[in-house]
User: Fold this.
Amino acid sequence: MAAVPMRLPKVRKAVGPSVPRGGEKHLVVPGDTITADTGYMRGHGTYVADEKLIASVAGAVERVNKLLCVTPLRSRYNGEVGDIVVGRITEVQQKRWKVETNSRLDSVLLLSSMNLPGGELRRRSAEDELAMRDYLQEGDLISAEVQSVFSDGAASLHTRSLKYGKLGQGVLVQVSPSLVKRQKTHFHDLPCGASVILGNNGYIWIYPTPEQKDEEAGGFTTNLEPVPLSDREVISRLRNCIVALVTQKLMLFDTSILYCYEASLPHQIKDILKPEVMEEIVLETRQKLLNLEG
Amino acid sequence: MASVVLSEAEKLYIVHGVQEDLRVDGRGCEDYRCAEVETDVVSNTSGSARVKLGHTDILVGVKAEMGTPKLEKPDEGYLEFFVDCSANATPEFEGRGGEELGTEIANTLYRIFSSEGSVDLKSLCINPREHCWVLYVDVLLLECGGNLFDAISIAVKAALFNTRIPKVHVLEDEEGSKEIELSDDPYDCIRLSVEDVPCIVTLSKIGYRHVVDATLQEEACSLASLLISVTSKGALTCMKKIGKGSLDPESIFEMMETGKRVGKSLHTSLQKILDEEESLGTTRQKVGFLG
Assistant:
C-alpha cells in the first residue's frame, strides 16, 4: 500500500555554483539604473528618467555597440519569423483559426496557410471554409512555424510543410519561453524511444515516435491506437525530467534532456519529482554538460 | 472549477494510461502527488496551515471567537466555514466567478463536520446557553491545480491541529452574573483533538478505472467523481457524487474501498508530519511564502 508522500517545506537553495560564461552578467530589476551615460540608445526593457537609463523589466542587460536593452528572464512569448511553435486552437473564425501560443495576443493561422490533406495546391473555396471545423477544432494542438508578425505583436502561423500539422497522442509540458534554447531543429527523435518538439513559445510536446512516416496524410489523420506501455514509460520519464530541468532553471535542448533522462534511470518515474531526487539528477546533468563543453 | 481544454487525442492518451496504471507523471492510480504541509504561517490567527499539493495551494486560518451557543445545542460550540476562491488561482474566479465553487466547498465542509464526533464540540463550551467558542475556519485558494477538496480537507485538519484556544475561567459574582477571565499566560491554551477529523478523498472515474488525486488534465477527462470523507480509523462518514456522468453501483463500491484504504494512509502520513513539525518546536525554520 503506497504511503502518501508528505513533507515539511524547505527553503529552496540554488543547485551548484552559478557558472558565468563569458564574464559576469549584469542583472537588473525594475527601477535599477543601468547607466548615467547619455551616449547610449535605449532598447527594449528600458526607459529614460532624469537623464539616466533605467530598467523596466527584471533581466540581463545586453549591449550591441551603442544600444542597451534588457531581456527579461521570464516573459510571454514574442513571435519571431521562423520560430517553431506548438499551439492550441481557441477559436474557429471565418477563414482562420485563433491559436493560443503563450504570447500576449493569440496567434492567427489563416486557412490559406494550412496544408490541405493530400498536399493539394488549390484556391480555398467556400466548401473549405465550411469544412474548417473538420480539420481543426477548439482544443486541438498543432505544430506550426511563424510566418510573419503583425504590427500589434500577434504572430501569423503557417503549416506549409508535412512535418507541421495537427498533433496526435502525447503529453504537453508548459515552460517559460526563455528556457528553450534556439537551435537548428526543434523536432528531435530521441534515442530513448520517444520524440519531442521543443516549441520556441515554451510548449514542449512529447509523443511516441511514429513507426512509418505517412507522407500522404500530412498530419491530419490522428493515430488513435493505444500507445504501448514501454513507450508510455519513456514519455512519462521524459516529462518528469523536463519538469525537473525547468524547476532548476536549466536550458532545454535535446542534449540536456537526454542527459537528464540517463541520470534519472536509476530512480522510479514518480520519484523524479521529489525535491531531493530532482536536485541530484539536475546536478549530474549539469556536470555532464560542463564536461561536454570543457 | 478551473479547467483546461484538451484535444481528443490527449484525452485518449490519458484514459489509456489510467487503464494501464501509468499516469502521465508516472504515478499509479492510487498515488498522491508530493504534498508540503506547514502550520502556523499566519500570525494573527489562532491556528493556520498551508498545504501545497502539486500545483494546488491552499491557506487555512482558524480564528476562535466568543459567541452564544446555538439554541438546539446549548452546551456545544460550533465551527463556521468560509471559502474564498481568490482571482490569484485562475482568472475565472475574478469578481463573483469563484462564489459558486466557494459555496459548494463550504457546504461540503459543513456536511463533513456535522457528523457527531468529528470534533469535540463540548470542549468548546464555556457557559451552557450563554458563552461558547466559535471557530471561524477561513479557506483561501491560492492556486488551482486539481484535487481541491482533498487539499482543503488536509489543510483544515492541519489548521485545527495547530489551533490554540486560550483558557478561560468563569468567575461567579455575588449577584450571580458571570464574568469571564482570560488567563495571563499566553501559552496557557487548550488544543483540539483532531483524531476523528475526517479527510476528503476524491476518486475520479476515468475510463473504466478510478484515480486518486487527479490533476487538472485528468479532471478534464473524467465525467464523474466520488467525494468521500474518511476518518483516521478508516470509517466513511460522508459521500458525495460530483460530475455530469453516471456511476454504476459496482464501481461505487470499488471506489469506496479504495477511498477508505487511501484515506487511512493519508491520515497516517499527515499525522506523522504534524507530529514531526511539533517536535521541532521553536527550532523550526519557518518557510512561509518567501522560501
About this structure: The first strand of chain A starts at residue 6 and ends at 7.
